Amino acid sequence: MAVTLEKTTKPLNGNQPRAGVPPPPYLGRSVRIVGPVANVDMNQSPHPKNQRGELGKALFNWYRNTISRDPLTRVSAPNHFADRRHFLTTVINQASKGKVNSKQVPVTDPAAMTRHIKAVARYMGADVVAIAKAHPSFLYAGSRYVQDGTAADEHEHRSPEELVQKFPYIIVTTTAWDYDKLQAHRHFIGDAAYHVSQMKGVLILKALEGYVKELGYTALRGVVTPQAAGVASGVGELGRNGLVINKAFGARIHMPDPIMTDLPLVPDEPVDIGVEDFCKICRKCAVNCPTNSITFGDKVVFNGIEKYKINWLTCYKLRPYTHEHWVSCLSCATVCPFTKPNVWWRSLAVWALSTCPIPARPALVHALKAIDDRFWGVVSQKRVRWLGYDSGIKPGEHACTVAGCTAAHGPDSAKVAGDIGYYAPLKENTNRFVKRGV
After folding, report:
1. Which residues contact 106 (CB under 8 A, 6 or more apart)?
2. Is residue 117 a contact partner of residue 267, using CB atoms and an 8 Å limit?
3. Which parts of the chain sit beneath pLDDT 70?
4. pLDDT at residue 406, rounded to an integer
5. Strand 8-13 versus strand 300-302 pairing type
6. pLDDT digits (tens, 9 = 90+) for 243-299
7. Per residue in 22-43, pLDDT tens?
8. Torsion angle, CA of 295/296/300/302, rounded to 10 degrees?
């Protein structure tokens, strides 16, 4: 899920940057810095706000006091376990941080080291890895966002400008959600695709963080906003759905905290794969969003950044009303036309879009979207069976919502208690908490 942060601190840079602050970086066509940017305060993001009870009782109780009915969710998703020691990410994150090796490996060829560190990340299990040049506007404000709960380190007191000068590179590495399982979004199967990918990402980043330190260089996490580093490094472009859309995997990539480092590297460049042109026309994510959190309109300037702005609050507030059937919606990622199997015809479509002259792209986008609607539908209609789960015969009709197939497949299937689960009438669920003001 992508979020937009509301509360910020003192503007860091603008069209007239102050001394010591580099000019705004180029982030590609999908997102632009057009005015003063204030570093975001992660203490004002959804999870910390919810931990303090600032988003209402329903969300607080869901986040802190619910145990999932699904065993896979209990071992792969935060805060819904019967015993947190069964949640592997907790175990990994609570491990003591290693020290930087005093015997530093000299780097005479940053380009060779860049190829090497990317190969190491892929060997450890990463699906995507890229390098960004650090910029102060990419960094969090105030205290670092340390998800593992460990104490502040020796660099805690440094300003964003100082951190960028000392650690000028960002290693962005991530994993892709399983395509077939993601087709059962709004179901425990889709949750597994998302949460297990997230768990793998933590393992990979912890291992890569340790590798950088063993080379004799610093590796900081919880410092950089993943989306900013993602578009700056060329991992993808920012879509209407607020997600980074990748050339190979579309929107089905997780964006965990990247690694900021002083290891000499060569940064990659932002990419143009046609997301900017496609999102202007497509709007498929907005049509399918159950909470109307994705805009149908144009981009806006928020915190000095021109982009499509989603309503993170309505997106987030849906969860207490669906957690018995699924936790993470993922509709906007699943229905995105870029989210397709990484096969030749998909590669051909992306190649055609990215090489097409920009003035001619709208016509091509209309054609590609018509093909997507014809063969994949305006909404997902795929039934998924996996590990004894069954997403149901057809979304919105007779969906299975628990482990083990409970869908009826014969002439009496209409007797099944119908539209709870996979494609429940979610706009009504949204109205419940909007009307109550919770």
Report:
1. none
2. no
3. 1-21, 142-153, 379-381, 393-438
4. 43
5. unpaired
6. 999 999 999 998 989 999 999 999 999 999 999 999 999 999 998 888 889 999 999
7. 888 999 999 999 989 888 888 8
8. 0
The first and second tokens of residue 245, run together, are 């859309």
Q: What percent of the chain is modeled with pLDDT above 90?
A: 48
Place of tokens 């409970």: 406
Q: 221 is written with which tokens? A: 């996490």
| Sequential DSSP letters for 90-104 | HHHHTSPPPPPPSSP
CA 268-269-273 angle, to 5 degrees, is 120
Q: Where are the beta strands (DSSP E) in 97-228?
A: 128-133, 169-174, 219-220
User: Which residues, at least 6 apart from 12, have a Cβ–Cβ distance to it below 8 Å?
Assistant: 21, 36, 37, 38, 39, 136, 137, 160
Among 44, 45, 84, 42, CA closest to 64: 84
Question: In which residue are the tokens 């931990």 written?
Answer: 51
* Measured distance CA(423)–CA(327) in Å, rounded: 13
